[in-house]
Amino acid sequence: MQSKLKIKNVTGKNFGEIPNPCRSCLYWQTTGEYNETILKPETDHKKKEWLNAVAKAFGNCIKLAHVNDAAIGFIQYAPAKFFPRTREYASGTPSDEAVFIACLYIVKKEERGKGFGTSMLKSLLAELRERDCLKVETFARKSSGDNPSGSVRLYLANGFEVKNEKDDFPLLCLKL
Hints:
globular, seven-stranded mixed sheet, 25% strand, 176 residues, 7 strands
C-alpha cells in the first residue's frame, strides 16, 4: 500500500495531535541549560501559549505531517526573534528578515529516509513564498541526520547554502 503524506497547519484546536516529544519541547523557546527531563506533559501548555502568541504576530508557525492518519512529522518555524536559543549557536545568529526553521523532524524512525522530510520542506517553502518571505535559515547537523532540525544534506539538496560554519551546526540560508 502506498503511503500518502498529508501536511496541515497546527492551531489551538488540533494542538493535541502534535506527537511527543515535540508537543512539550521548548528547546528553541528557552536559553541556557536544557535536558530531556524538561519534556513533561505540564510543559504542553507553555508550548501552546507560544504557538498562539507567534500565530497572532506572524501567522502559522507549526505544521504536522500525517501518513495514514498518524502524525509522523513536525515542522516549527517563525522569525528567529521567537526562538531565543538561536543566539547561542557558534555559527551565528539568523538574520532578522529570515524565517527560521527550528525543527523539521520525522518523529517515527521507520518513516525516515522515505522522502517525507523533503516533501515537508518543499510544502513549507511554497507557503513562505506565498507569504512573501524573502529568506529561510536554519541550523542543521553535519555529522548526523538523526537530529530534530534535519541534516545538512537535506537542506543543501533543496537549494540552501552554508552561510556560516563554526561547528557541527552550520547556519544554512535559502533566498526565496
